[in-house]
Amino acid sequence: MAAKGLPAAGSGSIEIAAGSELKYQGKVNFVCGGIDGLKNPRVWVDAYTPGTADLIYGEGGGAGDTFTLGGGWSKWVEQGGGPAHCIAHLAWIMDTHGKEWSGHSAQKEFVELDTVEFDATG
For labelling, which of 2, 66, 73, 110 has a CA lying 20 to 30 Å from the CA of 8? Predict the structure, then answer.
């Protein structure tokens, strides 16, 4: 259940922005929709060794941020790159009062609006 006036789970959209570099250490941006009314929509990017559940990179940021796949330090960086299967999640965080989390209260729920999966080259 969504908080009053805020997007419900599954009601958004996230796509990879044109010009994104889908490779290790590549810069990736996203085009996000259905985030009206949110002050702090979030994107989380996870990367896995292909064909496994081995998480090698994870990073969160704002919906308009640029992500460097692998980041400054991660298991992906430690292993020197290589291909990865990535999932980007568009979401917002609900606090214990049923409102959008402002960073000053306890978090209650991760409200996922959409995901996009892609493969990154090494």
Answer: 66
Beta bridge mates, 33 = 13
96: which 2 tokens?
Answer: 């214990």
pLDDT grade for 2, boundaries at 50, 70 and 90: low
For the chain, the residue count is 122
pTM, to two decimals: 0.92
Structure token digits, residue 86: 């990535």
The boundaries of the domain holding residue 34 are: 13-120
Assigned domain for 107 exists: yes
Q: Report how far residue 100's alpha carbon sits from residue 34's, in angstroms, rounded to the nearest whole number.
A: 15
Q: Is residue 60 part of a domain?
A: yes
Report how far residue 102's alpha carbon sits from residue 41's, in angstroms, rounded to the nearest whole number.
11
**Alpha carbons 32 and 14: distance in angstroms, whole number:** 5
Cα 68 from Cα 29, distance rounded (Å): 9
